[in-house]
Specification:
The chain is mainly α. The chain has helices spanning 3-18, 25-38, 40-43, 48-52, 62-91, 98-102, 107-116, 122-129, 141-146, 151-185, 195-201, 203-209, 226-233, 245-248, 251-256, 270-295; strands at residues 215-222, 239-240, 262-269, 303-309, 316-322. A hairpin with a 6-residue loop joins strand 4 and strand 5.
């Protein structure tokens, strides 16, 4: 098979894949969760007694366990939207090996790629998103003339918006990655954390905690040592320990043998989750638009069209660049 034959075969496969996808699903999911969280009583009015009967203690299951679970699910959907974007960036640069590269998921490799992505570098962002790169300080006179009026400013603003979104996504991914992994990989999250005591014994204080239905705290369990956590995440967590009499004198030994149960607390706002997922969804749409343009048979065209994001995710900026040998 020649390179050209492989490219054409892969182009057909990309079309099959693309038109079978619904890239907005993560965004729809987190917006649906936000609506549920803001209207919990209305949403569960017919079913809540069924859920509560399985919990013997006098705890408000609806506004604690179920609410906490939805916050974890929303963060998980946002994290997966971010990983979807970076996975495409990492694996779809070579269209000819799309199936081989993109459909094999390597979580460790993807995590490293996100962590090492240099969002502060204008040039690196252009490279990773397959944007043409121009340094305004080194443009030739001909290149300056090739730009239409304000053309370079439009291009620069579009790349800088991409940088802004990528920085935001990287920060979110890092902040909630441990919560996401623990929720995804097993029963390692606490949906009935310390607030349960408040819910049972001080309903006035409990209502104060829940006064803003868009905010919550994720309680996530960990094993290993606190030093392991710090090395893995680069930060010291807000740690919660429930020390009981038979544990107290053995805390150090349990910790050192990585057998001490502790949890971390991470605050989250559902509106932030929606915003981050929107930005990830926006960039995924841009990346795929450019992939499809690269896959088109447009050898006779003198112009290379490239898509860039704008603040309104329903729109995009398309700039045509004259083709040359570079």
């Amino acid at each position: 098979m020649t390179r050209e034959e492989r490219f054409k075969a892969s182009r057909e496969q990309i079309e099959t894949y693309y038109y079978s996808q619904y890239f907005e699903w993560r965004l729809v999911a987190v917006k649906s969760i936000r609506k549920i969280l803001l209207e919990l009583d209305q949403f569960y009015k017919d079913d809540i007694k069924e859920y509560e009967k399985y919990y013997k203690d006098d705890v408000d299951v609806l506004h604690l366990q179920i609410r906490n679970g939805w916050f974890f699910e929303a963060v998980s959907q946002a994290e997966q939207a971010i990983e979807d974007l970076f996975s495409v960036l990492m694996n779809l640069r070579d269209i000819s090996f799309f199936v081989k590269d993109e459909l094999f998921y390597n979580a460790g490799k993807l995590k490293d790629y996100i962590r090492e992505f240099d969002a502060d570098s204008f040039e690196e962002v252009c490279k990773q998103f397959d944007y043409p790169y121009f340094d305004e300080n080194h443009l030739t006179e001909k290149e300056r003339l090739d730009w239409c009026e304000n053309g370079y400013d439009i291009y620069k603003e579009a790349v800088e918006l991409t940088q802004k979104y990528v920085k935001e996504l990287k920060e979110f991914h890092h902040k909630y990655y441990e919560d996401y992994c623990q929720y995804k990989h097993g029963l390692s999250v606490g949906l009935v954390p310390m607030q349960a005591v408040l819910m049972k014994n001080d309903m006035k204080r409990a209502k104060e905690i829940m006064s803003n239905p868009s905010e919550n705290a994720l309680y996530t369990f960990h094993n290993g040592t606190i030093g392991d956590y710090e090395r893995r995440t680069g930060k010291l967590p807000g740690i919660v320990l429930n020390i009981k009499p038979q544990m107290q004198k053995h805390i150090t030994e349990l910790h050192n043998e990585k057998n001490l149960l502790f949890s971390t607390i991470n605050t989250v706002d559902i509106n932030e989750v929606v915003k981050v997922t929107e930005h990830a969804s926006n960039l995924i749409r841009i990346v795929w638009s450019n992939i499809l343009k690269r896959a088109e048979d447009n050898e006779g065209s003198a112009t290379l069209e490239v898509c860039f994001p704008v603040e309104n995710k329903e729109e995009m900026c398309v700039i045509g660049f004259p083709k040359n040998e570079n």
